[in-house]
Design brief:
By secondary structure, the protein is of the alpha+beta class. The protein has helices at about 5-30, 130-140, 240-245; strands spanning about 35, 40-45, 50-55, 60-65, 70-75, 80-85, 90-95, 100-110, 110-125, 150-155, 165-175, 180-190, 200-205, 210-220, 235-240, 250-265. It is built from 3 helices and 16 strands. The strands form 3 sheets. An 8-stranded antiparallel beta barrel has the order 9-10-11-12-13-14-15-16.
Length: about 260
């Protein structure tokens, strides 16, 4: 080997590891992934939409999904919008034109809210009622409340929770949340204020051949004002129609189930 060829050979030996290192770095940089997605999995609620942003790869993205439970659309060059059409699981394969791929698992569930009751109360108003009648009525109204302190409800939305009028199933926990329960159904309606914004919700529950209507609204007792400045909320039920025949002098009678917490699942 002459001196010139030998010099070229040495140069190649020096540059080859550099080319290899650069190539490996490039492959690593181009690996497909999804922004803020952990363990290749996302969860969506039936009736709501959500999506993922693709990063990495060569920028020429496509996807495939054969599940009838999931509607998918690439609304931007690197964004896929999903809409669950049912509950279950679906797999989405995301690819680029260089052959990189990514498998995403999409879990689809009904949205649910678990409510724990912290306090039960009754308000009776009637200037012409005797003290004895007010006390008796308060006891009767208190007995109508379906749950005790520590009990509560679990509402599962079988339609979109974002709709003004929606419905689903309800578990009523008379004694303790996650304990023994009564199964029923419910409808929820949003009531708007004069400006068209949300004011409060009305929940109508059906269970044991009964219909109960609770208004989800602020609980105005000053003592419930927390240090953070937020007032408590309640399920309030107007019972005037139920008791007005027996107590004709009542002006108002309603129960309050003050809510300790609401957990969304």
């Amino acid at each position: 080997m002459n001196q010139k060829n030998y010099s070229v050979y040495l140069l190649l030996l020096v540059l080859l590891p550099i080319f290899s290192f650069t190539s490996c770095d490039k492959d690593s940089d181009e690996r497909l992934s999804l922004h803020q997605v952990v363990n290749n999995e996302i969860e969506l609620y039936y009736g709501s939409k959500g999506g993922v942003t693709i990063i990495g790869g060569d920028g020429n993205y496509s996807f495939s999904c054969e599940s009838p439970l999931l509607k998918a659309e690439m609304t931007h060059s690197n964004y896929i919008l999903f809409e669950p059409l049912g509950v279950g699981e679906a797999r989405v394969k995301i690819s680029d034109s260089s052959g990189h791929s990514y498998i995403l698992k999409v879990k689809m569930n009904y949205k649910s809210e678990k409510i724990v009751v912290a306090k039960v109360d009754v308000t009776v108003v009637g200037d012409n009622m005797t003290v004895g009648d007010q006390k008796e009525l308060k006891e009767k109204a208190m007995a109508t409340i379906p749950v005790k302190v520590g009990g509560g409800y679990k509402f599962t939305y079988t339609e979109s929770e974002e709709k003004e009028e929606t419905k689903g199933t309800v578990l009523i926990y008379p004694e303790k949340v996650d304990g023994e329960s009564i199964m029923g159904t419910f409808e929820r309606k949003m009531v708007k204020n004069e400006s068209g914004g949300h004011s409060y919700y009305i929940y109508t529950l059906h269970y044991k051949d009964m219909d109960r209507t609770f208004v989800f609204m602020e609980y105005n007792e000053p003592a419930t004002l927390s240090s953070s400045g937020f007032r408590a909320v309640q399920f309030a039920e107007d019972l005037k129609e139920r008791f007005k025949t027996t107590y004709p002098n009542i002006d108002q009678v309603y129960t309050s189930q003050v809510i300790a917490s609401m957990v969304v699942n």
